Amino acid sequence: MTAMDCATCEALIDAYADGELSADMAVALERALPQCPGCRQRLEEARLLRDALRAAPVPRAPDSLRANILAALPAQGNGATVVAMPRHAAAAPSATRRNTMRWAAAIVVALGVGWAGGRFLPTTADAPQEAREIVDGYLRVTATDRPVDVASSDRHTVKPWFGGRVAYAPPVHDLTTDGFPLVGGRVDVIDGRKTAVLVYQRNRHVLALFLWPGDSPGVSSEVRNGFGLRRWSHGGFVFHAIADLALSDLDRFAAALNARLDAER
Q1: According to its UniProt record, where is this protein located (predicted)?
Q2: Which tens digits make up the pLDDT trace of 20-47?
Q3: Gap between the Cα atoms of 10 and 35, Å rounded
Q4: What total number of domains does the chain contain?
Q5: What is the span of the domain harbouring residue 103?
């Protein structure tokens, strides 16, 4: 097997950290790592992220939550708390009580998970409208077997496709050599306007880039609803890149795209 170049090595880091590479590819990557400090750092970041997720605590819902749920359920004349049960269960009071407690426990567990999740993930209620719409748009991309309307890595195929579909000509670049191959493009609606979306891939992860003309100074990065989201502007366009990737990957994506935009000026 020929020596693996740095771009290929970096593109395979996540799959290697997750144990998804074949034995031959894993061996090739391990041979390339000593000559690539950047890839070694990227691997360390991927492992730290994996370990942090595994070690994240799952807090127990407070007893008061369980008590409030049980108190809110309707009660029979004998004071027993019940929920709606199948008719055939009405003839067996003891079984009904046992099933009732199982139902109540299930409700407590379900709400407890939601309560715990609310401590670690930002709620959509207090999120900026634009960010919420970007997350919703990303879910539309990933919820279908056909994430793009025009499937091609050729910018001369994808860019003309947007003609007449959006009111601007989006910059389109294939970033395969940077580890982000272009999959294609689609149109979505963000803030009531038709918006160009470019879809890229990072190993097995989907990255969506929402973009429109504008100039908004500053860069912001955050994790929202479990997805990395990076916002910046460059070359007369505002960009929102979102994926289930580490923010460092989105930083690399933004740097690669900015370099392409600067090179074509």
Answers
A1: Membrane
A2: 777 777 788 888 888 888 888 888 877 8
A3: 12
A4: 3
A5: 63-120
